[in-house]
Design a protein that fits this description.
The protein is an alpha+beta fold. Helix content is about 20%, strand content about 45%. The protein has a single domain, classed as Lipocalin. The chain has an eight-stranded antiparallel β-barrel. The chain starts with a helix and ends in an 8-residue tail after the last strand.
Length: about 140
């Protein structure tokens, strides 16, 4: 049985797409491995205008966010969920368990996350009070 032109076109398209998708998946895995770690800084969280935040990004694409509100001096409930890197590695997206409002961070550097205002592809004019920075392991601080 001779393949039809349509079957050949589909096979050709698939042959092009599969390596491209595999490369994109590898790139995302590599970005995830580089990005995983612990970040600390300040940002608005859960009705608190200014909170000290500790964000742990696990290599398995899960995160935990712990925050302490400066105004009320209260610890906020921890948040857990899934994280992903999007927009060609320029955006970190946190999706909490229960899907109740994702957060996006611009990635200006591997060691800095800047909470985005709306979309992470829009520049943030003043990142003060909206930035998290990578915590270095104790051995690396010497």
């Amino acid at each position: 049985m001779k393949p039809s032109p349509r079957h050949l076109a589909c096979a050709f398209a698939l042959a092009i797409m599969v390596p491209a998708c595999a490369m994109a998946a590898d790139e995302t895995r590599q970005t995830g491995a580089v990005l995983s770690g612990t970040f600390f800084g300040s940002m608005p969280v859960a009705g608190c205008e200014q909170a000290d935040a500790l964000l742990q990004l696990g290599a398995e694409r899960r995160y935990t966010l712990q925050a302490h509100c400066r105004m009320t001096l209260e610890n906020l409930p921890p948040e857990q969920g899934d994280w992903s890197v999007e927009w060609n590695g320029t955006c970190l997206r946190l999706v909490p368990d229960g899907l109740r409002g994702a957060r996006e961070f611009a990635l200006p550097a591997d060691d800095t996350l800047v909470l985005a205002d709306g979309s992470c592809i829009e520049p943030v004019e003043d990142p003060r009070g909206r930035s998290l920075h990578r915590m270095q392991p104790a051995a690396a601080r010497h």
